[in-house]
Amino acid sequence: MAEGLVAPTVEEQVPVELNTALKLAHHANPAAKSAGKLMRYLEYAPALNRTSYYGLLCGACESPSMSRSMSLGILQGVLKYTARMRADITFGDYWLQIKDVFDNMLVE
To answer: Range of 99's domain?
Structure first.
């Protein structure tokens, strides 16, 4: 999913809470790894800037440090956040590239 996304060219501040939550979701120690903090953050997060939203999309992807099941759970939270904050409009270029991922997720 994240391979096709173009990284932001303007450097912007990423909220500490988001950064911490993403690090926990990708923690090297399986006992410390948790998506809970990120899921709670997404429920109440304010509008994110482009750099933060890009990091969120990349950080939600399945990877060697994140299982498919954890990724799917986080992607559900990202989709809810996107709908709540209308990030599909704010970041329309990203939305065009990732909407099929969300469609496929919902079909599973």
So the answer is: 15-107
